[in-house]
TrEMBL record, chains A, B, C:
Keyword Kinase: yes
Protein family per UniProt: Belongs to the Thz kinase family.
EC category: transferase
Species for this entry: Thermococcus litoralis (strain ATCC 51850 / DSM 5473 / JCM 8560 / NS-C)
Short name of any one Pfam family annotated for the protein: HK
Protein name in UniProt: Hydroxyethylthiazole kinase
InterPro entries given in the database record: Hyethyz_kinase (IPR000417), Ribokinase-like (IPR029056)
Catalyzed reactions per annotation: 5-(2-hydroxyethyl)-4-methylthiazole + ATP = 4-methyl-5-(2-phosphooxyethyl)-thiazole + ADP + H(+)
Signal peptide (UniProt feature, chain positions): none
Length: 266, 266, 266
């Protein structure tokens, strides 16, 4: 997994501009995660400035955590522009399955946009595939290792996009090849927006790497940083702060030492 | 006060889904407080998804800290749905008294909704009772122990809802019985959204307890966590982080040791 | 520089109410910075309550970081009311130059409002003066010490307002006198909203001091707090928390010991 450290170096050298149309709960959180890792975040949703901002950006993050009419309109406009300008896009379908609005909006974005990666929890990705009742608010109500792998593969094929199903084990698939990542800590579930941070960090890697490897690199880097943070502070407030510290401190050596990434035999 | 620790255990077992329509300043803060204590927060205000989300939720938190036309509309729709579905609702009338819009919106929500608890500072609750000039921005301009007790009782009767007036001493009343809580630390006033966090945590307790006891349990738990955080870090940034740590760490034994709750003789 | 410590004492005694119409990313962050230093923040953008809120406020902070139609309308209404009520206003033209919407909105606010101070980075202030291509997202793409000084002076004359161009060295000018401040730490660039915090803190000083001195006092105080925070924690998450701690702890003695402020000979 030495390539992950090299991608991280490339990311830090490029300092990619990552444009986020994201939810109000995590705006500050994801901006800080992007700054800590070495990217440059920008948040903008006014229709009038989308084209200029996306033209400047190296990647686009769409996160549907707090929707409203105006934001939905901005998101569709943004993925359309990104498609034209050939900018990579990652979609976080927060809470898909909890409400029809969230499921429908995510599916429509996957349909009209040229989405490079979709990252969600088990319940969210299941909902996108029409398997309902597995989301509770914005959390996954269930998690099943074997089913998670299948979901990632099925969604990757169905939506013709790299899919990452994150949980105790993460599965990342492009429909042909599938990888499992076993880093991280359950404490991530006790801080709001950590899934959204993971998505944003994959977004930053999309500026320097193709989607499948960007997803693996982003999740592995983020989750190893979380492991180190948890070792220093086992409680959620202090852990949260240390997470930014470790997104800043993490390097290729640490990733090489800790990465638990393996390809799943088909 | 052993029942508070037991309610906290129930809360953590149930992991209630708490739906928040809240202000932009504290969204991240209250989500993290709810996660730390053991609840599952969700934020959603799009009209199209309110019914589904409230149906899933165990409690609804309405916080008027940053109003606009659309949000007000969502709030009214939400309390209406919650009434129909018999979900408990807590209202935080942030800044009532500072502007007519805030006072009017709060009063109207109390009128049309079936509000279980209203929690505010002295100036805010005074404003709801028509006693103006006691709010300055979102802070209480004055605080008077004896008057606070009277306010809590009067508001509880007037609005037919449990009322919590928080300050140096908190008074919680259902109009018949009134309790004083003397936990907490003035450092809470140096971190934004701590009142809103207290409200959200009462919201989580509403999923496992009736309104009067849920309010006492929520405030006592929150304020003891704040005492511990302050003992570890007497400065606002570090204190803020430790507050989440202690919302996670607090248990029945600590509550029993520290709780300063007493019933006021009528 | 003993006057800065005295202004800080005045600020803490007055506890000014600082009204912010600001971006979603930094609302929590700037509210906490204002509370830590000793001011009282309020965030409100509903047209219906602007007049009452600004009447209560001691200063108004306008930050264009996340624009939309409604917010722009609120901002224009707010600067108009502030002008009428003679309240000091500080403008943060976040991302000016990155998009036409941001440049145009900033210029129009400077034109119709009675703006006391504008604070931006090199690229943003350059864009306001028609020198484009120096902003990348919300970060300055270039920085040049000599040019920064000239920009501050030119903008101060052009817009007839105190201008602060912040960077490795900050330049503050009222068009006649120009000051350089060399405090701070590059780690400020690794936490989102630190520029916005600096703006908000100048806003608090505007409640007790004239614009040129308020800008110098605000930047110096903020950046010395950042130096102390960085000495305690050289990583972004922990640094961020310590920054609030030191905004709370900083006093006249520390400012006197550390301030690197000098007037530039014309």
């Amino acid at each position: 997994m030495e390539w992950i450290g090299k991608d991280l170096e490339k990311l830090r050298e490029k300092k990619p501009l990552v444009h986020n149309i994201t939810n109000y709960v995590v705006m500050n959180t994801t901006a800080n995660a992007l700054l800590a890792i070495g990217a440059s975040p920008v948040m903008a949703h006014a229709i009038e400035e989308l084209e200029e901002m996306i033209a400047l950006a190296d990647a686009l993050v769409i996160n549907i955590g707090t929707l409203d009419e105006h934001k939905i309109y901005s998101m569709f406009k943004a993925v359309e522009i990104a498609k034209e300008l050939k900018k990579p896009v990652i979609l976080d379908p927060v809470g898909a399955g909890a409400t029809k609005l969230r499921t429908k909006t995510s599916l429509k974005l996957l349909e009209v946009g040229d989405i490079s990666v979709v990252r969600g929890n088990f319940g969210e990705i299941a909902a996108l595939l029409g398997e309902h009742g597995k989301t509770r608010g914005v959390d996954s109500a269930v998690y099943d290792k074997e089913a998670a792998k299948d979901l990632a593969e099925k969604a990757a094929e169905e939506f013709n996009t790299v899919t990452a199903v994150t949980g105790a084990v993460d599965y990342v698939s492009n429909g042909k090849r599938t990888y499992a990542i076993e880093n991280g800590t359950p404490m991530l579930g006790r801080v709001t927006g950590t899934g959204c941070m993971a998505t944003a960090i994959i977004g930053a890697f999309l500026a320097v790497e193709e989607p499948l490897k960007a997803s693996i690199a982003g999740l592995t880097t983020f989750e190893i940083a979380a492991e180190k943070a948890f070792e220093e502070s086992p409680y959620p407030g202090s852990f949260h702060m240390k997470l930014y510290d470790w997104l800043y401190r993490i390097d290729g050596a640490l990733i090489k030492e800790r990465a638990k990434v393996r390809e799943i035999e088909p």
